[in-house]
Amino acid sequence: MRKIGTIASFSVSAGFGVIKEDDGGELRFEGSEVKWRRSTSPVKGQRLSYLTEANRLGAPCARDLQAP
After folding, report:
1. What dihedral angle (degrees, nearest 10) is formed by the CA atoms of 37, 62, 10, 67?
2. Among 3, 39, 43, 62, which is most buried by a count of CB atoms within 10 Å?
3. More confident call, 51 vs 67
4. Domain tally for the chain?
5. Cβ-based burial of 65 (10 A; exposed 0-12, middle 13-18, buried ≥19)
């Protein structure tokens, strides 16, 4: 099930960011999970939809980020 949230931060140089979930939680995401035009980096405050999965260490993270 897809969720909706807002980008709280994104570092182009580090290649990852944080999503503020609508329920108040936060999730980390990798820049490679962004599924819209590559010429546009995610920006703080941008709304998006995503899937939640566990990363290789078992921590929750956002995957398959898309503009809603």
Report:
1. 30
2. 62
3. 51
4. 1
5. buried
Q: Output the six-digit token pair for 63.
A: 């995957």
Predicted TM-score (pTM) of the model is 0.82
Query: How high is the pLDDT of residue 17?
Result: 93
Q: C-alpha 8: how far from its chain's center? A: 9
Asked if 19 contacts 27 with a C-beta cutoff of 8 angstroms, the reply is yes
End-to-end CA gap in the chain: 14
Facing residues of 63 across strands? 51
In this structure, what CATH number is given to the domain that contains residue 58? Answer: 2.40.50.140
Measured CA to CA, the distance from residue 60 to residue 46 in angstroms comes to 21
